[in-house]
């Protein structure tokens, strides 16, 4: 194994590393019944859309890391930009100073974001961007003398992060089990998955029902108690749930009518996943009050997130006669090295025309995805842009094991990584993926589905 670490002597072997990992490293989302008994894949290196494990086996990175590696791996120009910034200025206080990278990046993001979303608060990732968004809503309503207007309406199956506030508005039960959350702060609407509509119900009728759910909840809780509605444009880690046509526009209008701020969580959908910098306006036709983003902002090369706030909200938070601090921040807000990584990432996306590329290859990606319906173990497939999900049919729910795990195992054997989610598998490959590589990925998926179907029959 080649390592970037210069340990010179006693280079550990893979068995040592697995041992130290199992003994000392607690991974995110660890299964607590057996967290020491499980060997994670030891990833050794990566280039383009591929990863190599410690044995030298190559895999297509189907999930693009965790929905984040837009420009692909092994970019020399990214390494050079990061190294140069480390040598020029690796850190400075975001409270009392500003740097060239953060000022340029703030301007760039404000230019990309829709409408009057011109104010960028840098965070350490997606969860802290969501925290900042909710704290902004609270700060604004306290400043406006509306201390009760604080409740956040969120959606079941939505994922917004792992900090206390972000996990409180997360609607995935699995992500909250045995943890406490701030439940007084949040109300959940049912998720908006047309696959779950009743037999014979039209998608339009289903959409009307889901929009009415929001109206009913506002009537029940009282708009004077509700500060914000938070939604992912496509509900991603809840299973790539694409809402019915018009859902976002209609819910956005309802929020506007009740002075409820609309937070669009674009942590996954931002930075090119759907072929645009942001999906809210370009794909779904709404200008939210706040957008949160992270992941694709740096393509995962370094951690950075942002909470983008409208001028209108900023105006309502500002009071010339009352100089209260907006005391929200992180030591690593606007970190200059992370901001340089984001600027280089944006430059690569622009120079290589990756937004246009996604718009060009996405129809082929989605057509190959739809073709997987021919397997009778597949209940639903759905997606948009370079996002996709396969959900198992009732047949895959009969035994002990779910489609996600079975497909994951079969694909891994064949050189493709997927992200299993109970009875589903999801994909968000690097945006640089070519048409031929999309075919390579779906050819493997088809062979893996054939194998799993044979196992289940
Ligand atoms: N919001 C969404 C929509 C996400 O998918 C995620 C992470 O997957 C987050 C927020 C949290 O981001 P992070 O893990 O960077 O804190």
TrEMBL record:
Its cofactor is pyridoxal 5'-phosphate. CDD domains: OAT_like. Gene3D superfamilies: Aspartate Aminotransferase, domain 1 (3.90.1150.10), Type I PLP-dependent aspartate aminotransferase-like (Major domain) (3.40.640.10). InterPro entries: Aminotrans_3 (IPR005814), Aminotrans_3_PPA_site (IPR049704), PyrdxlP-dep_Trfase (IPR015424), PyrdxlP-dep_Trfase_major (IPR015421), PyrdxlP-dep_Trfase_small (IPR015422). Keywords: Aminotransferase, Pyridoxal phosphate, Transferase. Belongs to the class-III pyridoxal-phosphate-dependent aminotransferase family. This is Aminotransferase. It comes from Pelagivirga sediminicola.
């Amino acid at each position: 194994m080649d390592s970037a670490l210069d340990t010179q002597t006693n280079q550990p072997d893979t068995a040592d590393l697995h041992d130290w990992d199992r003994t000392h490293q607690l991974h995110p989302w660890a299964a607590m019944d057996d967290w020491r008994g499980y060997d994670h894949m030891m990833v050794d290196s990566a280039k383009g859309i591929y990863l190599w494990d410690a044995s030298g086996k190559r895999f297509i990175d189907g999930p693009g890391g965790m929905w984040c590696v837009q420009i692909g791996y092994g970019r020399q120009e990214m390494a050079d930009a990061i190294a140069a910034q480390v040598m020029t200025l690796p850190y400075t206080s975001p409270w009392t100073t500003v740097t060239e990278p953060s000022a340029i990046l703030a301007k760039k993001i404000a230019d990309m974001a829709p409408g009057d979303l011109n104010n960028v608060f840098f965070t350490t990732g997606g969860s802290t961007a969501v925290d900042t968004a909710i704290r902004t809503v609270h700060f604004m309503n306290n400043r406006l003398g509306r201390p009760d207007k604080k409740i956040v309406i969120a959606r079941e199956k939505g994922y917004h992060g792992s900090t206390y506030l972000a996990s409180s508005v997360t609607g995935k039960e699995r992500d909250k089990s045995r943890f406490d959350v701030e439940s007084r702060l949040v109300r959940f609407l049912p998720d908006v998955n047309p696959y779950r509509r009743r037999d014979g119900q039209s998608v339009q009728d289903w959409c009307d029902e889901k929009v009415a759910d929001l109206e009913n909840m506002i009537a029940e809780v009282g708009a004077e108690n509700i500060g914000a509605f938070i939604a992912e444009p496509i509900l991603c880690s809840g299973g790539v749930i694409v809402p019915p046509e018009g859902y976002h526009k209609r819910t956005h209008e309802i929020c506007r009518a009740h002075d409820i701020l609309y937070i669009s969580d674009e942590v996954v959908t931002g930075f090119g996943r759907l072929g645009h910098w942001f999906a809210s306006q370009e794909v779904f036709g709404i200008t939210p009050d706040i957008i949160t983003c992270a992941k694709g902002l740096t393509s995962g090369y370094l951690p950075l997130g942002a909470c983008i706030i409208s001028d209108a909200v900023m105006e309502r938070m500002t009071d010339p006669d009352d100089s209260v601090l907006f005391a929200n921040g992180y030591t690593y807000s606007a970190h200059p090295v992370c901001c340089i990584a984001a600027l280089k990432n944006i430059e690569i996306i622009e120079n290589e025309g990756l937004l246009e590329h996604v718009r060009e290859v996405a129809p082929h990606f989605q057509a190959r995805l739809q073709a997987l319906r021919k397997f009778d173990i597949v209940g639903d497939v759905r997606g948009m842009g370079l996002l996709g999900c396969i959900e198992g049919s009732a047949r895959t729910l009969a035994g002990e094991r779910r489609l996600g795990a079975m497909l994951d195992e079969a694909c891994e054997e064949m050189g493709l990584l997927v992200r299993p989610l109970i009875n589903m598998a999801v994909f968000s490959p690097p945006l640089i993926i070519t048409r031929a590589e999309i075919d390579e990925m779906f050819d493997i998926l088809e062979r893996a589905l054939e194998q799993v179907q044979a196992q289940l029959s």
